[in-house]
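Backbone-to-sequence.
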């Protein structure tokens, strides 16, 4: 089963001719198939960059990021396509195109990778199933502007799930949602995880983390300062410096 692994992973962004920002520094992390992992930390701590590295959307300056022992920075185009099919990702930025109905946005995601879904009928089946799982049945022909903020996030999750990935990486999926809607999405994710899908999600909601008691990775200034198997929000254990 696929694992995700970062080895001394470092990502640096240039902020001009002379300024640089080391978003994450010397990260060593292994996530096994079937885990449910929360990534927490203050704004600017490096959560989005960490998730981007795990999902293969961002490459390292130093160190490496591996999917099932394959270095994602140097893998072949075919291997990269397979990885993109195996990892569903929801970023903070909206991935739904305003000019496309929800059905077409999700259908476009089925063509990522090897394009194994060639039949329009098969694509429609996948779209209906994914939207049904997240509680958006009947939204296929709506435009994003016709959906509420919470419905758009559900559609984003459906898009990430459309290829039945073995891993879901979710960046602040429940931010700005009311508590009931957030818990509805968490229940969906818990059920998906129960069936074997790895879930890695960043969140600023202490209530989700503290009630569910899953693995909690805490970041500060681009470094892991806590990694607790059944943790609470902000809980630090192990050989990590204190915040």
């Amino acid at each position: 089963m696929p694992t995700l692994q970062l080895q001394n992973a470092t990502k640096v962004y240039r902020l001009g001719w002379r300024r640089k920002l080391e978003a994450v520094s010397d990260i060593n992390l292994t996530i096994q198939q079937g885990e449910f992992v929360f990534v927490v930390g203050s704004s600017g701590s490096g959560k989005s960059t960490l998730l981007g590295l795990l999902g293969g959307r961002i490459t390292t300056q130093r160190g490496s990021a591996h999917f099932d022992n394959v270095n994602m920075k140097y893998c072949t185009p075919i291997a990269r396509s397979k990885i993109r099919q195996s990892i569903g990702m929801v970023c903070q930025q909206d991935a739904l195109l305003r000019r496309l109905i929800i059905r077409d946005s999700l259908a476009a995601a089925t063509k990522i990778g090897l394009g194994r879904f060639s039949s329009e009928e098969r694509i429609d089946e996948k779209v209906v199933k994914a939207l049904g799982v997240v509680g958006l049945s009947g939204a296929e022909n709506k435009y994003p502007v016709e959906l509420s903020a919470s419905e758009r996030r559900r559609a984003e999750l459906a898009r990430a799930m459309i290829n039945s990935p073995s891993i879901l990486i979710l960046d602040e999926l429940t931010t700005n949602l009311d508590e009931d809607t957030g818990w509805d999405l968490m229940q969906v994710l818990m059920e998906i995880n129960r069936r074997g899908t790895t879930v890695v999600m960043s969140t600023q909601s202490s209530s989700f983390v503290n009630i569910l008691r899953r693995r909690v990775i805490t970041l500060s200034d681009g470094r892991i300062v806590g990694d607790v198997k059944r943790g609470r929000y902000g809980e630090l254990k192990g050989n990590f410096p204190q915040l």
